[in-house]
Design goal:
- 36% of the residues lie in helices and 20% in strands.
- The strands form four sheets. Strands 14, 18, 19, 20, 21, 23, 24, 25, 26 and 27 form a ten-stranded mixed sheet that branches.
- Strand 5 (206-208) and strand 6 (214-218) form a beta hairpin.
- The chain is globular and about 90 Å long.
Length: 723
């Protein structure tokens, strides 16, 4: 279980002296896994949204495919592991692992059926728009001649057909392995034979024909078209293909003596994890189907889902086509005016006043500029940085290496347990160490998920600490599509707290008497609970009582119970939860004062914002406002190092609350409303539709403009009023 307290018996010190009314778990919470599938259904629905350009719809379809793969590799794999071990722990909504797996299989089947239908529709629309994906019978004439030459020269040398007979046993199929099977017979006669061809992971899924007209052929279509080249002297009696998904979650063993060596070994083992999902084509002959099922082993533990087009995530390759007319209009993020006003001097800008930067509308380059300036500044003596996901070509890593080579004291906390980025992070850690950076890997059993950077600079006879606190990763690529907040401050309290955070991770020195920050796993849940309690007290005192929260996921049963209790007391609660939400809103007697919405659109909503009304409704300069690296999940509260930062500067407070938070609440073009029965309904735009992504793409930020406001007039503040 994620927490030692049973979900039906909330801990008194967290929840309070009483909790919300006793309602059966199945009616109290949504299942986490099914809620995630519901989120991916919303992503898939964007592939059907006619408001999006055609290739962007293909992108959404591919994202839904990749999402589902990862879901099976991690979440379903975990449930499978529990089922195999006979573990019958129930989820907060009362389901055993076996019951959850059955529900997941049914819901995932429906989702993949829709994916296939959507792809067929998009394929036809792409063809009409001049981006064709050719089928086997369309490969004729000059097209066939060019493709055969390409196949012989570029693809044939990479493929390795393998006979399946007593001397050639069925080979190992790696995770996400795409495999073709052929039933063959020699033209000269003899018994039929079977051949297997695995598609190498290094080969692209689609081949683009030369010319201005965009024409693509899937690699498996190409192989089937030219079997006479691959199998000369054979007649093809039948062919099919399948794909497997394996358990890819890496469990960290507490007795691991060398974490780096452990992860290097574990990454290799990931390819060979237990098969969780088998995806055969519907045309697979019965004999081949039997063969595959017998050979992959553990059939009773495998979820099977038939798909016409395998590996939907690979459709992302088509989005690379140079057709601006079929994509979102290009968007260039702004560089904060405040930094420009100080001649590009990040330290001077931060020293004058706290700054918040709203990504991707404002460029992540300001974070890189902060680090590069620190690396080059002779007065900077130390840099400390957490690294969770930094990307493959990371300018952040380059800045830290430059700083170390310039003789500065540089410490990097590299999180090896960042799922699916483990190998990349190991590589970065080795490069940093070679440059003289002190690399620390943090806790064995906890992830360091807080995104914090601190720079210590000599100024006169004293040292000043400049800090960056982010809701997102130090990843220049995802910073272009994830909405996140970067908060820069030279507040001495923040600097002292950040130093304690780093000492905690590097030396296990527990923080004492923090002045601003709250950290998990020590006190974050309790601080949030205290904020909710304060709103309950306001409601009981007859004051306005409200809570506004923006998260990626809401799962933690104890916090959910606390929100139920606040609703029962009359606190008005608005939650913007992009992904998983286990809280059931709008239930009479339980949560009638709680509203939940999800936003899915051009950018991926990623920032975490928490606001407690503190006795007044929005707009409200008195509200207690926080940003955080943590979602409200047991793992974030109990098994990760996270931060919660209060926002006190009035300008920054106004931007985050009156603009960012309110824009999320009033958006009606990209929003879905969660109903008490678990169904999400897309909002219908009102008479004056509002799209928060469009708003922030076309309106300048408040904090980042500085003196430019004097010339341009006041940036509009959004407001929210309840009927």
């Amino acid at each position: 279980m994620d927490h030692p307290n049973p979900v039906n018996e909330p801990a008194d010190d967290i929840i309070g002296e009483t909790s919300a009314p006793r309602i059966a778990p199945a009616e109290r919470y949504f299942n986490r896994e099914l809620s995630w599938i519901a989120f991916n259904e919303r992503v898939l629905d964007e592939a059907c949204n006619p408001a999006h350009p055609l290739l962007e719809r293909v992108r959404f379809l591919s994202i839904s495919g990749n999402n589902l793969d990862e879901f099976f590799m991690v979440r379903v794999a975990g449930l499978k592991g529990q089922q195999v071990q006979g573990i019958e722990d129930r989820s907060p909504d009362g389901l055993t692992p076996s019951q959850q797996l059955a529900a997941i299989a049914e819901r995932a089947d429906r989702l993949t059926d829709v994916q296939q239908t959507v792809w067929l529709s998009l394929r036809d629309q792409l063809a009409e728009a001049g981006v064709a994906v050719l089928e086997r019978d369309q490969i004729v004439g000059e097209t066939a001649e060019w493709l055969e030459k390409h196949f012989r020269e570029q693809i044939f040398p990479i493929l390795t057909p393998q006979a399946l007979d007593p001397s050639h046993p069925f080979p190992f199929i790696p995770n996400q392995g795409f495999t073709l099977l052929f039933d063959l017979r020699r033209l000269s006669g003899g018994e039929p034979t079977r051949e297997l061809v695995m598609l190498p992971s290094t080969i692209k899924r689609f081949v683009r024909l030369p010319g201005l007209q965009a024409r693509y052929v899937a690699i498996e279509t190409l192989i089937r078209r030219f079997t006479d080249v691959l199998f000369p002297g054979f007649e093809v009696l039948g062919d099919t293909s399948f794909r497997v998904i394996r358990d890819s979650d890496l469990e960290v063993e507490e007795e691991a003596e060398d974490l780096v060596l452990y992860f290097k070994s574990a990454i290799k083992r990931r390819r060979r994890g237990r098969i969780i999902r088998l995806e055969p084509r519907p045309d697979m002959p019965e004999a081949l189907d039997t063969l595959v099922r017998e050979e992959i082993g553990g059939l009773e533990d495998v979820i099977t889902d038939t798909q016409e087009f395998l590996a939907v995530g690979d459709l992302a390759e088509l989005v690379e086509e140079d057709r601006p007319d079929l994509k979102f209009p290009p968007f260039t993020p702004r560089f904060p005016e405040r930094v420009r006003e100080h001649g590009g001097d990040c330290f001077a800008a931060i020293r004058s006043k706290d700054i918040v930067v709203h990504h991707p509308y404002e460029t992540f380059d300001v974070v890189l500029a902060f680090l590069r300036q620190a690396a080059a500044d002779p007065d900077v003596v130390a840099i400390k940085q957490t690294l969770y996901r930094a990307g493959k070509q990371s300018a952040v890593i380059r800045a830290l290496i430059d700083a170390a080579e310039a003789g500065k004291s540089v410490t990097a906390v590299v999180e090896l347990k960042a799922r699916f980025d483990e190998e990349q992070n190991i590589n970065w850690a080795e490069a940093l160490e070679q440059a003289g950076v002190q690399v620390v890997y943090g806790f064995i059993d906890w992830k360091t998920h807080a995104k914090v950077s601190m720079v210590v600079r000599r100024e006169g006879e004293q040292f000043r600490t400049y800090c960056h606190f982010g809701t997102g990763n130090y990843h220049p690529i995802t910073a272009r599509i994830y909405t996140d907040l970067s908060f820069f401050t030279a507040d001495p309290r923040a600097g002292r707290d950040a130093a304690q955070l780093f000492n905690y991770v590097t030396g296990y020195v527990e923080p004492q008497k923090l002045e601003l920050l709250t950290l998990s796993p020590h006190g974050l849940r309790e601080t949030l609970s205290a904020g909710i309690d304060a709103e309950i007290d306001n409601a009981r005192a007859g004051l306005d009582a409200a809570i506004w929260v923006k998260l990626n996921s809401l799962v933690d049963p104890l916090i959910i119970e606390k929100l139920y209790r606040a609703s029962a007391a009359g606190v008005e609660i608005d939650l913007v939860v992009r992904g998983i939400c286990c809280l059931r809103p709008g239930v009479p007697g339980l949560s009638e004062n709680i509203r939940v919405k999800s936003i899915v659109g051009r950018f991926l909503e990623h920032s975490r914002i928490i606001a407690f009304g503190n006795g007044a409704d929005l707009p409200n300069p008195k509200a207690k406002l926080y940003i955080s690296s943590a979602d409200w999940m047991p793992r974030n509260f109990d098994r990760r190092v996270e931060f919660l930062m209060p926002i006190e500067n009035p300008t920054v407070h106004a931007q985050i609350l009156d603009q960012v938070m309110v824009a999320n609440l009033i958006d009606d073009e990209q929003s879905w409303i969660l109903h008490p029965n678990g169904e999400y309904e897309r909002m219908k735009p009102g008479k004056r539709p509002f799209n928060l992504h469009r708003y922030f793409m076309t309106n300048p930020s408040l904090s980042g403009r500085g003196a430019a406001l004097k010339n341009a007039g006041s940036v509009p503040k959004l407001t929210i009023k309840r009927d």
